[in-house]
Amino acid sequence: MSKAPITAASRGLSSCHLCLKLLSSELHHCPRCGARAHLRKPDSLQRTLALLVTASILYIPANILPIMITDQLDNSIESTILGGVVLLIELGSLPIAAVIFIASMMIPLSKLLVLFYLCWSVHRGLPSTVRQRTLVYRAAEFIGKWSMIDVFVVAILVALIHLSDLLVIRPGAATIAFAAVVIVSMLAAESFDPRIMWDQMEDDDA
Amino acid sequence: MDTITADKSNQTSDCLACPSCDLVFDISVLQDGEVARCTRCRHFLTIYRADELNHVLAFTSAALIFLVMACSFPFMAFKSSGLESVMTLPETALKLWGYDMPGLAFLVAAFIIVIPAFILILILALTGALKLERHNKWLQPTGRLIFLLQSWSMVEVFFIGVLVSLVKIAKMATVVMGVSFWAYAVFSVLFILATSALDRAQCWRRIEALNKS
Fold first, then answer.
1. From the CA of B195, how many Å to the nearest CA of chain A?
2. B112 with A195: Cβ contact below 8 A
3. Taking CB atoms and an 8 Å limit, are A198 and B17 in contact across chains?
4. Within this chain, do residues A46 and A34 fall inside the same structural domain, yes or no?
């Protein structure tokens, strides 16, 4: 690039995160929508990292504790997320096993790893691959809420299946931990600011 | 489109910065139906539609009607060994409450019913006021709440969850879909159409214009 790109920051303007208005970077509140205004999301790296660590810790009980308890006649079976996937494979329902495995194992885990990587790349000040990293960030932001599928599946099965003593499905403690993982990692994605990566690239070019 | 504007003659009120990479664009030059994307990182910026409010009003009112329907009839029934159990949509949350998980019950209810309903009512009030060009001091907080809440609605996620549960138990027993199931399916589509028809930047430009007039 021959000349410096015209960013809002380079013109002394900040962009309102809520209504996208351009305003003088000295203002504390957006005059159009009233939201708090910042040039960049405040303490982006620290907040994202703190939330990521929280989500990673919650991920342990989410996988160890039972997510669902099936009471069939006199015996009751507790199943974890991974246990449910293994059971589905043994029963021969590969496609559903794949959906559950992707939504409840791969998405939350890869989202955490991606955000950890992005934080590390900003910390190291990697100048290249900004465009790809922005895409990866937006993908992580987009898929975040899809991990709630498993929690909803449990909620639906619990509400639907209650045949007196014959067959009853109860929610396990992991549902709470898992819902918390999803919410905390959504907040982590929201507190990360991709513009910092572009700032670093422009500083490098200058 | 290619609208990087360097010269200072442009009013900042006609411009916006890409939320991903901060590059500035003039969006006042958009014609009806034109989409603006960031030229540097390809992020979607805004779409200008002259009849945006009509679309939003139509989708929003239809979505609200289907949501009310989805809450008032049986959602699914489960039959096995001569026994039958039926669930309604609010029961997905209420049953969790019964198992001593009030927090989770609250979250599920919020994500699939309460927040979407609240967003729709707020959109209806906002677009109604914009359409009738009625000044109101509530326009600003209403608009702010709509866009704050949007990332916390999980209507489409829940519907995929319903499909997954269906497939999961289809082998165990007979599952019958009720009126609410179909109503919620239509509602999910209408809800996505309503919220995506309301463009963030254009909506706030309309609010600003109305407040200045």
1. 15
2. no
3. no
4. no
Q: Which of B190, B54, B57 lies closest to B124 in space, CA to CA?
A: B57
pTM (2 d.p.): 0.90
A186 and A108 in a single domain? The answer is yes
Q: Are residues A12 and A48 in the same domain?
A: no
- CA-nearest of B47, B42, B36 to B5 is B36
Whether A35 and A48 share a structural domain:
no
Name the DSSP letter for residue A171: E
Residues 6+ apart with CB under 8 A from A64: A80, A174
Contacts of residue A203, defined as CB under 8 A and 6 or more positions apart, other chains included, come to none
Amino acid at A176: I
One-letter identity of residue B173: A
Count the residues in chain A.
206
Q: Do A34 and A94 belong to one domain? A: no
Residue with tokens 């495995």: A101
Which residue among B5, B22, B204 places its CB closest to the CB of A9? B22
pLDDT tens string B157-173: 999 999 988 888 877 78
Record: contact B157-A23, CB cut-off 8 A: no
ipTM of the complex: 0.89
CA distance A153 to B162: 7
The CATH class, in words, for B52-212 is: mainly alpha
Q: What's the structural domain count of chain A?
A: 2
> C-alpha dihedral over A92, A95, A98, A102, to 10 degrees?
-160
- What's the start-to-end Cα distance of chain A, in Å? 10
Look at the block and give the residue holding tokens 């914009």: B130
Rounded distance between C-alpha atoms, residue A112 and residue A121, angstroms = 14
The alpha carbon of residue B190 is apart from the nearest alpha carbon of chain A, in Å, by 19
In chain A, beta strands by DSSP E: 13-15, 22-24, 68-72, 75-79, 162-163, 167-171
Min Cα–Cα distance to chain B from A37, Å = 13
Q: CA B55 to CA B114: how far, in whole Å?
A: 23
Q: Check whether residue A127 and residue A173 sit in a common domain.
A: yes
Q: To the nearest 10°, report the CA torsion of A56, A60, A61, A64.
A: 160
Residues contacting residue B98 through CB under 8 Å, at least 6 positions apart: none
pLDDT digits (tens, 9 = 90+) for A103-152: 888 888 999 999 999 999 998 887 778 889 999 999 999 988 888 988 99
SS3 label, residue A109: helix
